[in-house]
Amino acid sequence: MLTPAHAPALARALSLCVGAMALSLSSLAWADKADRSQPLVFAADAARVDEAQRLNVLTGNVDITKGTMAIRADRVEVRQGADGTQTATATGGQGGRSYFKQKREGVDELIEGEAEKIVYEGRDDTVHFTGRAVMRRIVAGVAADEVNGQAIRYDNKTAVYQVLGGGVLGGTTTGRVRGVITPRNNDAPKEGGR
């Protein structure tokens, strides 16, 4: 039986598990670097553009592309910073969750994810998934790896995922993270069939 005295040890163990998962998935996340300089193209049922605030509010069946990146949601707010970087906050969508995908640089792989709220931060090239978050690595069109948790932070620059469980109660994370990691095939044929 867990007691309040177990909370610090449980929190340390959970932190180590989350850290180990983040490190084991770290090689999965190199996004296509050319996407950052691509224009953001959208389609929606309605759009509100506020030039003074550098804010676009897109509602109803929103589809956004930016290079190989795609976002689908019921509502997306896109803000543009003075330096030209963009932040997109997506909420709602099929089953109450927004959808994100992006091609990885130099390989036939995609990263895709779903959550109740997705925030793409162009300034630091990160994606934050919050609420029933799921992220997958797709290799040649087939799901290879998957992680689930209350929140996932995906950093394109450092190629690291951080997966968190449910809420915090008394300094201890109350939820669990789950995942499937497929072994990498290092026996790929070499040039010339050897």
Architecture overview:
The protein has 194 residues and is mostly beta strands. It has a single domain (30-183), classed as lipopolysaccharide transport protein A fold (Sandwich), CATH 2.60.450. It contains 1 helix and 14 strands. The strands form 2 sheets. A 6-stranded antiparallel β-barrel has the order 4-5-8-9-7-6. A hairpin with a 4-residue loop joins strand 2 and strand 3. The longest helix has 18 residues, at 7-24. The radius of gyration is 19 Å and the shape is globular. The termini are far apart. The model is unreliable at 6-30 and 187-194 (pLDDT under 50).
CATH topology: lipopolysaccharide transport protein A fold
Give the total of beta strands.
Answer: 14
CATH domain class name: Mainly Beta
Low-confidence stretches: 6-30, 187-194
Percentage of β-strand residues: over 45%
What integer value in Å does the Rg equal?
Answer: 19 Å
Q: Main β-sheet: number of strands, strand sense, barrel status?
A: 6 strands, antiparallel, barrel
Spatially, the strands of the biggest sheet line up as 4-5-8-9-7-6
Query: How many domains, as an integer?
Result: 1
